[in-house]
């Protein structure tokens, strides 16, 4: 497809520019905020790609309306955001859709955080690569090979040294509570996916770098990619054997709610620790006061303080940790807040910061 000059082509070109800039930022070793910038720019690239598609297929109709009037932000019509675009488009695979949904929520979480790039880079590299591959595939599917951008991209060079187990553990020990909450969110998001989606290349690209000892020809490429579906059963078995040799084994533990409790259990544990008159009502005021979880009508139920609370998607409720019991007892025993004053504190102050009471 060759687009003439016009709105669709302008939107599409800005989408491609955003994706190229995202890759450029990500591949610069000394760039600060590179993961945050990559995520933001790729969300922008995806949004504009789907806007270009809508503009090309349904015209100028991808804007929110209320009572047949356009919604406006700062005088401009409010276009569909990416979540709505995904639903309206409706042709992404489940892996592609889950990958995008992860980054939409992650973008909201990293906007106001400074994340050490080594921490997040390693953790979500596969998902970042899949986000780019999926963009390229959708771009070509919607607008043709002429708009493919892979010829503009080069593989980023990698240093040979790999972090030792001790270095990884030291890095984990340096994680702030804020970053650990982000790590917990990503791990929980992954654990909620089906095995098929989690293992799909559309959700997260899994790569193994194995040096080529020798080439059959001096004209061979230094890097080769194998398509899994192009291999015969014997070749697939051999690749899996090699994978088993070099990859870290991920053990998925089914007892994910071990050490997490419903409110009634939390109340009982607090009482057992000496706060005799503690009630469910008191507990509700405490989580609201310290914002350890969103209200039920909150937009993102996963947006919890994972030191104290987790959202249980399977049962659509919240579970609390033993650390939350200790925190409540500590706050009330020190009489920084009296049990009898909890409700007045909530009404007068709205919310408090847990760090100031730990």
Would you kindly provide a brief summary of this structure?
By secondary structure, the protein is mainly alpha-helical. It has helices at residues 7-26, 34-57, 82-89, 94-110, 117-143, 165-173, 177-191, 195-199, 233-246, 263-272, 280-290, 322-333, 342-349, and strands at residues 65-66, 69-70, 72-73, 76-77, 260-261, 309-312, 317-321. The strands form three sheets. Strands 5-7-6 form a three-stranded antiparallel beta sheet. Strands 1-2 form a two-stranded antiparallel ribbon.
Write the layout of secondary structure elements.
Elements: H1 7-26, H2 34-57, E1 65-66, E2 69-70, E3 72-73, E4 76-77, H3 82-89, H4 94-110, H5 117-143, H6 165-173, H7 177-191, H8 195-199, H9 233-246, E5 260-261, H10 263-272, H11 280-290, E6 309-312, E7 317-321, H12 322-333, H13 342-349
Helix pairs in contact: 1-2, 2-3, 2-4, 2-5, 10-12, 11-13
Describe what this molecule looks like in 3D.
The protein is mainly α and 358 residues long. The chain folds into two domains: 7-199, no CATH class; 260-357, no CATH class. It is 50% helix and 5% strand. The chain has a three-stranded antiparallel sheet with strand order 5-7-6. Strands 1-2 form a two-stranded antiparallel ribbon. A two-stranded antiparallel sheet has the order 3-4. The longest helix has 27 residues, at 117-143.
């Amino acid at each position: 497809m060759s687009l003439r000059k016009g709105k669709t082509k302008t939107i599409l070109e800005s989408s491609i520019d955003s994706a190229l800039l995202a890759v450029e930022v990500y591949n610069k070793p000394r760039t600060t905020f590179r993961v945050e910038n990559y995520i933001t720019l790729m969300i922008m690239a995806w949004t504009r790609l789907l806007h270009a598609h809508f503009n090309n297929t349904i015209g100028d109709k991808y804007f929110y309306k209320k009572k047949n009037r356009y919604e406006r932000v700062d005088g401009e019509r409010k276009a569909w955001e990416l979540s709505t675009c995904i639903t309206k488009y409706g042709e992404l695979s489940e892996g592609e859709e889950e990958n995008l949904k992860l980054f939409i929520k992650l973008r909201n979480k990293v906007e106001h955080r400074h994340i050490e790039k080594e921490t997040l880079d390693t953790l979500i590299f596969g998902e970042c690569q899949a986000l780019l591959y999926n963009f390229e595939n959708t771009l070509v599917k919607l607008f043709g090979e002429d708009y493919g951008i892979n010829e503009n991209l080069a593989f980023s060079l990698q240093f040979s040294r790999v972090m030792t187990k001790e270095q990884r553990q030291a890095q984990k020990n340096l994680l702030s509570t804020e970053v650990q909450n982000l790590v917990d969110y990503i791990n929980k998001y992954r654990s909620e996916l089906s095995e098929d989606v989690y293992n799909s290349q559309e959700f997260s690209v899994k790569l193994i770098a194995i040096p080529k000892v020798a080439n059959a020809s001096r004209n061979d490429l230094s890097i080769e990619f194998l398509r899994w579906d192009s291999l015969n059963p014997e070749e697939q078995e051999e690749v899996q054997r090699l994978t088993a040799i070099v990859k870290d084994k991920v053990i998925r533990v089914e007892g994910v709610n071990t050490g997490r409790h419903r409110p009634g259990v939390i109340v009982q544990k607090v009482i057992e620790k000496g706060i005799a008159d503690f009630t469910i009502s008191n507990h509700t005021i405490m989580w609201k006061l310290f914002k350890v979880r969103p209200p039920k009508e909150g937009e993102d139920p996963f947006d919890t303080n994972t030191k104290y609370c987790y959202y249980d998607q399977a049962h659509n409720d919240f579970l609390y940790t033993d650390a939350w019991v200790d925190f409540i007892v500590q706050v009330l025993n020190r009489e920084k807040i009296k049990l009898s004053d909890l409700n007045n504190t909530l009404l007068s102050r709205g919310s408090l910061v847990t760090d100031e009471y730990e």
